[in-house]
Amino acid sequence: MRRPLKLRRTRSFALAAVALIATMMLPAGASADLQSDIANGVREFLDVGRTSVPRADCGPGSMPEPGLQGDVPAADRDSGRSTQGYRCNMSMVGQFAGRGAGITSTSFEHCAYMGSFFPGNLLSEGRGVQVLDVSDPTNPRPTANLTEPAMLAGTWESLKVNKERKLLVGTGVPVGTGVGYMSVYDISDCAHPRLLNPGPGTNLAMPLPITTHEGGFSPDGRTYWASGIAPGFVSAVDLTDPANPHVVWQGLTGIEAHGFGVSPDGNRMYISALGGFTVLDISAVQRRDPNPQVHHIGRVFWTDGWATQHSVPVSYDGKPYLYTVDEGGSGGVKLIDISDDTAPKVAAKLKLEINLPKNIDSNIGSSMGGSAFAYESHYCAADRQQNPTALACGWISSGIRVFDVRDPGNIHEIAYFNPPARTGRNLEMWNSPHALASIIGVPLMSAPNAVRAVLEGEFNPMDALTPRTGRLAFGDVSTDWCFSPPEWRGNQLYVACSDNGFMVLELNNGVYTPPPNQSSIVGS
């Protein structure tokens, strides 16, 4: 059963009514162009992407998905087939599973840093942030543990590297939001990070006045931005002297402050909100003006996805864009035109088949019992900032997805690797948020798009009913959560997924040629 004509008309009438009301509220002298802009803005706000990116053409050695693009069917989860994983034009070269990989991990040169998740990371060996030497990609090996207070408290989405200054920073986030603790490391010798700030931010008696959930650098590495979710609180921490981090600006940016992206010149921040982002002028902080002021200069919001995660600034032939990722509601990834940063515009949407409104019923049917997430995107990395050729994304339960983005008008998938599920091995994965959160069985992050699909007549209850339907609590780990941004190393990717830990993946079958100036761009 798909959306009947009556409901399609109802939706169209509702859209027209909202646009009409918005237009009627304009001053009498408002121009026709302004009225048209508002009507278009309302349409964009309510629009939902209803097409998926073209599938990858899987070559020799692949073990492709059996059904919808991105789906791990209920039958495969329950039979144990998902413990073999799925792959298309991509294979695993090496792995260090450890006790799981927290939420986001990061890397520098031939080393990787596995994020920590509280309190599981305290309950076994490998406490804090684990450092891996990946000189031999087939055999990543641990070389150190970072056990400062911030590292033991859990790094959530704050663990980031600045390549320019060879710095690693993480903040302490025990549950959702953390307060006060941040450690800065010199990673010139990447396998043996050296703590630079034993005082402010590390000493338990010397907390910084920050709240944290997520964080990241300005491109020059002089500023680390800590965002603390609700109520939209953001702090700029000066790292000019890494031994003496101190706050140079902080303020409220909106209802929520999640992840972000920063422009190459460090003058603009694209701070994620509930569904969309706000453009902030941070040039005064970048210049280190006395008493700097940060101004809102533009924004774009949508209902196609929510819990917007972060943005990756890129450009095509000199024209600036963002790849912006939604963590909830099957919003996928959006390409945003920011040539006018007072009025960003959605230029394209990247979704898998399992994310489409017409397939949300199947989405719910297979993901029930798998905890709070279903098939949401989380973090992406472009292979270079100017004229990127590929975008690699961590996709919760759908693995690592790689897209050809050379032509922004013709984006298509070229490869994927959905790692083997570690079903029944929860007690081996104390540092995995997936294993620890599996007491929940209902995919709560999909609730808004499921409600919308029902209201639009796109939801077929029969497609949502599977043998997994009654699993409301004590969920399993029949897929993995690939939260972390994949990072480019030639035709290889350094990736981390919550259950499988750190992996080196390799693109094969000739689907990707690294550009000469390849450099992973995460945005923060």
Compute the separation of the termini in Å: 43 Å
Helix amount, in percent? 10-25%
Helix segment count?
9
Cα Rg: 22 Å
The assigned structural class equals alpha+beta
Number of strands: 31
Largest sheet: number of strands, sense, barrel closure: 5 strands, antiparallel
**Average pLDDT:** 91
- Quick one: overall form? globular
Poorly predicted regions are 1-30
Q: What amount of the residues lies in strands?
A: 25-35%
Strand order of the largest sheet: 1-28-27-26-25
Structure overview:
- 15% of the residues lie in helices and 31% in strands.
- It has 524 residues and is an alpha+beta fold.
- The strands form 8 sheets. Strands 1-28-27-26-25 form a 5-stranded antiparallel beta sheet, with no helix packed on it. A 4-stranded antiparallel beta sheet has the order 2-31-30-29, with no helix packed on it.
- A hairpin with a 7-residue loop joins strand 15 (233-238) and strand 16.
- The two termini are 43 Å apart.
